[in-house]
Specification:
Layout lengths: L4 H35 L4 H5 L9 H44 L3 H13 L27
Helix pairs in contact: 1-3, 1-4
């Protein structure tokens, strides 16, 4: 990796793409999945209600309900924490790239052109870049 000039600007442009486009896009996917998992909790009573359970299996269904809830909560938390970490990582990368670009005017100009030329760099065809990551839902709290 070069440490100055237009070649350095291209490297910084790629970092900016990761921080502004790719990581927020990935974080959004995890946030959407987190909220989808959280919504399954509203159906617990329907799935595990005693009237729906065959006679004689009530005890095992209560145990299953507890295990299911525990597993769902673990998955929900993992997806939520991953979304938050990816978003935070993107912000840190953007900060670092900007700090380096501030040292070199040529690199800064190249970096800005890099992003302007392809504002969806690194995304799959048809995807759009949206830096706003949806809120996540952590177990026992409102959306964060």
């Amino acid at each position: 990796m070069k440490d100055k000039g237009w070649e350095f600007g291209i490297d910084l442009g790629e970092l900016m793409s990761i921080g502004r486009i790719q990581l927020p896009h990935l974080a959004s996917s995890f946030a959407v999945a987190n909220r989808a998992v959280a919504r399954t909790a509203q159906h617990d009573q329907q799935m595990f209600v005693v009237g729906m359970v065959p006679a004689g299996l009530e005890h095992s269904m209560q145990e299953t309900h507890g295990l299911f809830t525990e597993l769902r909560d673990i998955v929900q938390e993992a997806m939520g924490h991953t979304a938050v970490a990816l978003e935070h990582s993107g912000r840190v990368i953007v900060h670092v790239a900007n700090a380096y670009a501030d040292r070199d005017g040529e690199a800064e100009a190249t970096m800005k052109n890099f992003l302007k030329d392809d504002p969806t760099y690194g995304l799959a065809s048809g995807d759009t870049a949206d830096p706003k990551v949806p809120d996540v839902s952590m177990v026992g709290s409102e959306a964060t």
